[in-house]
Amino acid sequence: MSAETNNLGAWEADRDALKEVRISGRGSDADIPGELQFARGVTQLVSRRERRSDAEYDRLAAFVLVPAGFQESGAPNARRNPSLHTGNRPLTGRIHFVSAKLAGRTQEYLGDDTALLDVLKQLGADQFPTLIYTPSPNHSSLSYYPKGVVDEDQRDSWDVAEVNPSADAITEVIDRVYQNELVTPDQSANFHVWMNAGKGWAQEDAEARVQHALKCGLAGAFRHCSIRPEQPGKEGRTDLEIVSDEGRPPDKIVHHAVLELKVLREFGSTGGGYSDDEINTHIQKGLEQAYAYSLKRSMRERLLCCFDMRKLDLGDTVVFAFILDRAQELKVCLRRWFLYRNSAEWRAVMAAAVSTASAPPNLHSV
To answer: CA–CA separation, 63 vs 40, rounded Å?
Structure first.
């Protein structure tokens, strides 16, 4: 053992085995919003329960995201349910008052679907974020009421069955994140990627900010999957991985996709400029990283996702021209989103696309 190698003490005999342990990314939901953790946790719990032979499909269940004080006094008939998260306990015919991590209390209700809603109203729990589980042996679903069941018009529904994170599905999710959070500085209320948009100065950690925005979006779309950031390996650290590892032994884990993220900036956070050659080198590095990381982890999909913060939108074909053949050879999907420096520019581009009957930007034609 070389002097540069850390001695593992009592674990030294297991050094080789420890090297083979893959960082799972479990627990990586800690930095996403609580309501998103709640939605993902319930989806995974229901799926875990339905994989059991004794799963019930008789009646609805409600999962209510409540503050700690409500768990203690707001539902006097609810009992602590420390094993809820395991999927080993019945879910249907019950109301589960939980935290974002699914710790909480459970009470049964008597009657039909209307009785469930009546109990929530009687307890004053009809204004908390709620997921209604509608079980079916062939097609279970979850309906999310972000403002509680009192507001039936605000509702989102999804199937309990797993969604395949294909390259196209991943791109659709990133498109939504781009439109909602990144396309202009006005959209960046939660993820400020501009230091000074008027001057074209990007934040020093713009890539990290984009990474977090995408992680939240992907976590909401692919609720069964772990969205793993910064996974280390000999080739370097991946930006984002999408992996199905929930309730799976190591040999059954599915590695869906690796995303390498690159911000193409004209100016840094203090106004220093980047040449076209430097930007192209940045893109080339991203292509090689996406390929190398996907091989090591046997990823089904590999994507290089570029977020272009330069003054002029040159278009995907021009930006990727110098690596297009190589990307096709390596089977790396090239994707690019252009970030506008103000809303007026974005509106003008959208209006021009309509008036000239041309395709709107960012349709990933490469």
So the answer is: 12
